[in-house]
Design goal:
about 775 residues; alpha+beta; six-stranded antiparallel β-sheet; four-stranded antiparallel β-sheet; 27 helices; globular
Amino acid sequence: MDPVPPENGVRLSRPVKAVFVYSFTLDKLPANATLAVRAFKTATVFINGQHIAGLKCDGKNWKTPATASIAGELQAGTNTITVCVTNQTGPPTLWLRLQTDTLSIGSDATWQVSLAGAAWQNARIASQPLTLPGWSPLYDNHNVFDSLRNVWQELVFFLASAFGLVFLGGRWLSARPEIKPVCFIFILVVVARTALFINDMSGLSHWTGFDTKGHEDYIKFIQEKQALPPSDSGWETHQPPLYYFGSAMVMNLTGFSVGQENAVIPLRAINGILGFINCWMALVCLRRLFPENPSAQVVGLLLAAFLPPHLYLFMGITNDPLTGLLVTTAFYFLLRVLQSETENIWYYAGIGLTLGAAMLTKLTAMPAVPVFFLALIWRMILLQKKSALYWLRGVGLVALIFAVVCGWHYGRVWQQTGVIAVPNSQSTSWWQEPGFRTASYYLNFGHVLVSPLFSGLYSFADGIYSTLWGDGLISGASKITFRPPWNYDLMNACYFFSLAITILAVGGMVISLQKFRHLLKLEWFVMPALIFSYLMAIVCLTLLAPWAAEVKAFYAFPALVPFCAMVATGWNWLAKKNRLLRNFLWLVVIIWSFTAYTTYWIRPNNFETWRARAFVQLKQQDFPETITNITEALRLKPDDFVSRCIMAEAFQGQDKQAEALQQYLEALAICPDSPDSLFTLAKIFAVGPKDEAEYAVKLAERACQLTGYGKADMVDTLIVAFANARQTEKALALAENARDVASQNDEPDQARRMQELIERIRLNKDSGKPLRIEKPAGN
């Protein structure tokens, strides 16, 4: 496939063509030669310039190889295979095999490829993980081992504190039997989460969180229109309405409207309060699962309270927390049913009500539904209840209430759109990297333990691990610049310690299944079944919508309690072996809790706090405040490339071009291969005198090389730089190629613009008047 570095932006679904070329030599003509081709998604094949009409690669069954006999098209000596692959919903990708009597050729990294008429480069194997170059807006140069060295003092403090809590705290509690450890720990959890929420409110950007604007627009529509928006009218309007309706009611009661100053506070407070309730419900469930084991209850509670998604999601504006809480509540009612010897109709009603409400909040509750019904049906079978009335009062009542609570919404969506759900992942108008999946993506793991952020680009397991044990997608930010000011060194350290917790969870899964097999207690089947159901649902989602950002562990947030119970089960099994191992496990859990919690405690001396504030002020065009805050960020970290760029943009906003230019030059010195900085400087110098234009040529050429000549505005700048540097033939050749590619890709506006640029270059050839850069069509 094409070797262009991955981007995080949305790509419009329009045809993009890649030309793959390979040359080989035959000493003599073979008697037989068979060509097999699979192309993602359509392809035209040429052998020595002759079109192979027998190969049907129209994209309808692109996974099935198209074959043809091509012995008659080959020649003694050098032969050339040319394949033109076009795709509009992903990267053009080729699989090819040529088999002769004496030769076997397959598509590999030695093939040459030109994407959309760009420069020729070696192709990239599709199974090779996407790698982020150093200039990528998603690239983070901090690896786990560097972070461990940076925060070793904090970790030593955590270790000493954990020793004190395990040995001294244990003795103190044992001397005071009137104090219940679980209640005491829960109070500490409430205090800690409250302090975290209060501390972070001033340090978080308004837009921190996944798709914050889309969620706010939904709430705003309800506030203003007193009605629900059409299901396909916005980025988040496909979502069920319960969270948005409740948020709009809270906003009305508190006198706020979306868009007002400080209106984000009550919206975040909603999820903050839901976080406390979810911790309490988790504890209630854990007490039923481990009734005579307060240590296991405490371990499960600590994990539930400080699991990273339970921290960073509950400080954003999103419907995930409410969905998780409602499924957790439904799980509590299910436990009451499964563990009761007598029937209580209210428990069944509670399951139907809370499970239906969860489906009325977000579609991610769906994987829990079949597990709940399977458990209820299995219980009926085990109890050998054959009465129809008994089934109706149990499973039937759950199904009826469930359908009444959420069925009207999905019926409404069906009426409006013709489908049950309209998630953005079903969109055919755009796509995002990587655009495909391979088997190796689901079988690899390990990159997250070196460089965690955006490790979902490398493998499925890396992506799940990075979003389960940390904010691996930086709260949905599109660039490292916009990421929340968490302590990323501590986050990386937490990824390291979380290996032990992961092992406990896996062990707990095995033990719970053994418990179910020996005791036939359905709760020990439901918990691993819920986790497995969510895991498979996420796998299916990544296949249907093959984007790196779809690999999110917090889609399984409704399985929070089962996951915490699995960890507690594994911990409890090992802790029983001997006292020394038990104390060691306590140290692991406590150090992990400290590390996870402090990761999300925003510190005023964190340069990213100042940088985030400066960026928000830059967007608001408050240039003096931007410069004040970014100056403080640069004081804390003078070699931060992004801060230099923010400073430069602020100076440009104040029309201080000389100061802006100096900042861009300093940024380029820090990161010489930043396409954005190269491009910005090239734009400045491209319209100047001949010597400045020559310098712009070097800058723009490097920017285009780094991005595979795939960005129209960079190519335009290079064309103008060539023209003003009096390299007219190069300017014309590049412009004509861009025009032809635009025509082939069915982009008439861009083709027309390139033709106008060609005519301007020819007119200005002898005049000496500098050519100006115009805004590309569609930008």
